[in-house]
Structures are given as C-alpha cells and as structure tokens.
Write a structure and sequence with these properties.
The structure holds two protein chains of two kinds. By secondary structure, chain A is mostly beta strands. The radius of gyration of chain A is 13 Å and the shape is globular. Helices cover 0% and strands 51% of the residues of chain A. Helices cover 0% and strands 50% of the residues of chain B. Classes of the chains: A mainly beta, B mainly beta.
C-alpha cells in the first residue's frame, strides 16, 4: 500500500538557519503530495502541495518539489523564524483518495 | 467562519465508560474523517464517511463507532474505552467532487485520556 516516510525529529535550529525536512513516499500510480503544519494546540493546516511530477509547491517561504525519480518531496526554507516552530507532516493522496501521513517532524527554532 | 469544531477538547475518563466526541463542520463538505495522532506514528485514520449514511473503516477502527445522520455532524463513539485509546483525536473534512484538491480541513483536536 501507499506510505510516507519522513525524517525523524526533533529538529532544532537557530533563527535564520536553512531548513530541510526529508520526505520519501511509496505509491502506485500518480499521487498528490502535501505538507501540513501543526502549530502548538492547533489542528493541522495545509502548508503546500504538488499534484504531479516536477511541480513545486510553495507558501510562506517554504518550498517542496515533487521528484518522481527519487520518490521524494523534501520541505525546505531558506531562513527559518521562531514562528516556524511547529510539527510538520508529509502526506500523500492516492488515486482512491486515500490519504497517508508521515510520522511528523517537530521543529524548534531558537532566537 | 469556515471551520471544523470538535468537543470536548480535553477529556479524562475511566476504562469502560462510554463517551462521544462530537465533530461538526459548516462548509457543506460531504467527506468527513476521524484520525488519531500518536507519537512516532503520525496520523492514522479511524473511520471516514463519503456522505450521509455512508461510513467506512480506516486503518485502526477497532474499539470505535461512528454515525453520519446529517451532513454537518460526524460523532466518534467509544463504547467501552480502554487505556490504549488514550490519544489525540482529529476530525477532518474535505471539499466534494471537482472541488476536491485533496486538502483536508482539520478541527483543533480532542485530547483523550483513559485511566
């Protein structure tokens, strides 16, 4: 079945550091890929998405590129802020609308 | 404001005492779903509903029941809670048909502790 594997956390960075959170997937067909963010005490909210190979999703300075050849969708940000501290989830939607989530990566950004 | 509302947000209960977590959405979404979030396991789907009176099991349905009598409501029922159901629960909904981009809209979560 479809699955998502993302790098284990927690990740701790200083403000303005570069962020990469790795995500790889296993899927049949042509899935859509998502990054969700969960701020403390809140539900998940969509951060960005990509629906086909080579698409780049971007939002709030975050980016991720759908790489079919490496089955990856790594999340990047050039300069993180304290307000980016949250848990980040990589997710996949298969052809039957089945949504699979990774285990989540907790990011803490220190001033 | 478009939202998914869950209640209660926090609950401590004892083994075997039936409880219901309510979920309501005001976006006229047909699809609704329940997830549980556990450390290191991410979100796992419990049950989902494609529309009124249509429900189906997700990956971890054991010990849970759901009903979908109205489009806006999708309650999660624990008939006889056990400690392994201690978790953070999320309700989510999704736009229907051609408007469905895959994005899920989540409630704020319900933290359940079963002693």
């Amino acid at each position: 079945g479809n699955s998502v594997t993302q790098m284990e956390g927690p990740v701790t960075l200083s403000e303005e550091a570069f962020l990469t959170i790795n995500c790889t997937y296993t899927a049949t067909g042509y899935p859509s890929l998502f990054w969700y963010v969960q701020y403390p005490g809140e539900g998940l909210q969509l951060l960005l998405k990509a629906t086909k190979a080579d698409d780049k999703g971007s939002n709030k300075g975050f980016e991720a590129t759908y790489r079919k050849e490496t089955t990856s969708f790594h999340l990047e940000k050039g300069s993180v802020q304290v307000s980016d501290s949250a848990v980040y989830f990589c997710a996949l939607k298969g052809g039957n609308n089945d949504m699979r989530f990774g285990a989540g990566t907790r990011l803490t950004v220190k001033p | 404001e478009a939202q998914v509302t869950q209640n209660p947000r926090y609950l401590i209960t004892v083994t075997g005492k039936k409880l219901t977590v309510t979920c309501s959405q005001n976006m006229n979404h047909e699809y609704m779903s329940w997830y549980r979030q556990d450390p290191g396991l991410g979100l796992r789907q419990i049950y989902y509903s494609m529309n009124v009176e249509v429900t189906d099991k997700g990956d971890v349905p054991e010990g849970y029941k759901v009903s979908r009598k109205e489009k806006r409501n999708f309650p999660l029922i624990l008939e006889s809670p056990s400690p392994n159901q201690t978790s953070l629960y999320f309700c989510a909904s999704r736009k229907p048909g051609l408007a469905n981009t895959g994005e899920l809209f989540f409630g704020e979560g319900s933290r359940l502790t079963v002693l």
